[in-house]
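To the wet lab folks,

You asked to see what we're planning to order before we commit. Fair enough. Below is the target structure as tokens, and below that is the sequence we designed to fit it. If anything looks off to you, flag it before the synthesis order goes out.
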């Protein structure tokens, strides 16, 4: 290549970069708007999740779909705090049938008020992607959550459309790739981040009588992809469990407890304990508490001697019959 051709190529690249920065906003401004997730991930994410990007969430195995949705809803609840708008939940019809409908009181207990959620059910994946793209471009929602099962039409082109729509509307897109279990590391897309989520046993809350009650939602998380983060310079500076390599990764799994589900415990134990990150959702604070396998034990959480009160909301059909008959 001639010197003149090289200079022309550099000038062209500078113009492209300038256009991207003009579209996405100054880097410092975008960094200030990032949403912290958990200390184990934030340095690898450049401070947190961008509020104008596409973020993918994939279940680790087929049985982890509910955990992936719980993780996405927790992120949506955090984004709801930042904007006085509603979140849009778009679900492909088959995904809703395969994984089941969301439970209203459970959403409220999770930190997602029903008054600020808009549900959209699309007959197929193509229309679900269209609904997400249009909602992102308009800039009205606080976040757009998509749950897609049929991923045949999803790739670089489709993901880039969603990313550009998120950039234009300055709205975060949280895309649950419901059928991509076990494939998080092999996907190719324009998403800024990708998480792989596994179900994890929650800590127990002592009951006054009978069996202990289940505690807050917990999951194991692995950061498979973090584009353009530029936050981790070397392994020495990275937090435990986060490494700078060809990809930024942390292991998913959970701090193991004595549970009756021996199969789940064995499955989680099979992963490298040095790279295991446990995320525990605290709906009162709308924040994740992250725990590593080797850093903490069950007694260290304090959950064995203190109760956790979760906000609950009764659905219309849950009223006592006597009260319902008086209406």
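Sequence we intend to order:
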């Amino acid at each position: 290549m001639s010197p003149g051709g090289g200079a022309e190529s550099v000038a062209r690249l500078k113009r492209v970069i300038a256009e991207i920065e003009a579209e996405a906003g100054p880097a410092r401004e975008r960094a200030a708007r990032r949403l912290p997730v958990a200390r184990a991930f934030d340095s690898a994410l450049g401070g947190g999740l961008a509020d104008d990007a596409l973020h993918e969430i994939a279940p680790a195995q087929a049985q982890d779909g509910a955990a992936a949705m719980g993780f996405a809803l927790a992120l949506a609840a955090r984004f709801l705090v930042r904007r006085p708008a509603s979140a849009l939940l778009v679900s492909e019809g088959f995904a809703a049938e395969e994984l089941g409908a969301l439970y209203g009181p459970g959403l409220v207990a999770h930190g997602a008020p029903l008054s600020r959620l808009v549900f959209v059910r699309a007959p197929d994946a193509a229309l679900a992607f269209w609904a997400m793209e249009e909602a992102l471009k308009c800039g009205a929602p606080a976040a757009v959550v998509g749950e897609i099962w049929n991923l045949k039409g999803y790739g670089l082109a489709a993901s880039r459309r969603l990313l550009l729509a998120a950039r234009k509307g300055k709205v975060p897109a949280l895309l649950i790739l419901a059928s991509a279990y076990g494939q998080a590391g092999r996907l190719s897309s324009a998403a800024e981040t990708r998480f792989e989520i596994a179900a994890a046993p929650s800590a127990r809350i002592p009951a006054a009588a009978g069996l202990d009650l289940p505690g807050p939602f917990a999951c194991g998380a692995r950061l498979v992809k973090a584009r353009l983060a530029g936050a981790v310079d070397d392994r020495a500076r990275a937090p435990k469990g986060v490494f700078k390599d060809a990809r930024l990764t942390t292991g998913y799994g959970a701090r193991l407890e004595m549970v009756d589900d021996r199969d789940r415990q064995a499955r989680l134990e099979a992963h490298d304990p040095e790279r295991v990150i446990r995320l525990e959702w605290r709906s009162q604070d709308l924040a994740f508490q992250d725990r590593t396998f080797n850093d903490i034990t069950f007694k260290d959480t304090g959950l064995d001697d203190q109760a956790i009160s979760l906000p609950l909301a009764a659905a219309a059909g849950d009223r006592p019959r006597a009260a319902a008959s008086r209406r």
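Structural context that might help your review: Residues 137 and 168 are 6 Å apart (CA to CA). The longest strand covers residues 218-226.

Thanks,
Computational group
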